[in-house]
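Obj.: predict assembly geometry.
Materials: sequence records (below).
Method: joint structure prediction, all chains together.
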Amino acid sequence: MTEATDLAERAGDRDPRVGLRAVAALRLLLERLEAVQVRSAREQGWSWQEIADVLGVSRQAAHKKHGRQ
Amino acid sequence: MFERFTEGARGVVTGAVGHSERMAADSVTEEHMLLALLDQEGTRTSFAFAALGIRDRRPAVEQSLADARRHGGLSKADADALAGIGIDVDRIVSKVEEAHGEGAMRAGGTAGRPRRWWSGHRGLTPGAKGVLERSLRIAVGRGDRHIGDEHILLALAARPGVVSEVLSDHGATYTTLERTMFGDPGTLPATG
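Observations (raw structure tokens):
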């Protein structure tokens, strides 16, 4: 059994590590999903501005983060 | 810093590049370094792998690494943590693969920006580069004059992530590895 499972089972303790660990994992998941979706949008001919508008970030930020794809 | 790397340590990096090429990855990752370490024979790390029973369980180790790769670099512990807040990673990966093809979430292509850094052909991800830097700090912390494959393995075990979790799931934590390879508790892993 992994450490996180042990921690999750003790969630009733309101151990901050449980919640923080989930947030960290969620961030990683978010990054992967964003990469998949941005790549897909680029392949379908979306501009960086269009992608940035939907993501709610600046065009520069979107391009800087994903521009190598 | 490479002049301080032993032949074994250089072999790990060369081997990792080879694994990266064979897997058609676009950069060299910590996973490739672990596979290269598992290939070695007659070294301190291969002795530790044998002693901890990991050598015999290599297929299981490789399967764990492949699963994590398919899940976009999320480890089993990550998936468990997300399950704890009601997020089913398997389900998300399946949905994404339905829409974008099998392996769409696979880590490696965009997870870290590879740099043309060690070999002229294939860059190390920032994570892989971090392992080499940490192996140097571990060697220095132990008072060892050279950086060997054993320091690279300790660095892999010390860095939070898929590789250290897979190692830990198979009984190889920083502490057990250090004890097996050096026979003493030594110093704590350097942070950062």
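Conclusions so far: The radius of gyration of chain A is 17 Å.
To do: check interface contacts against the pulldown list.
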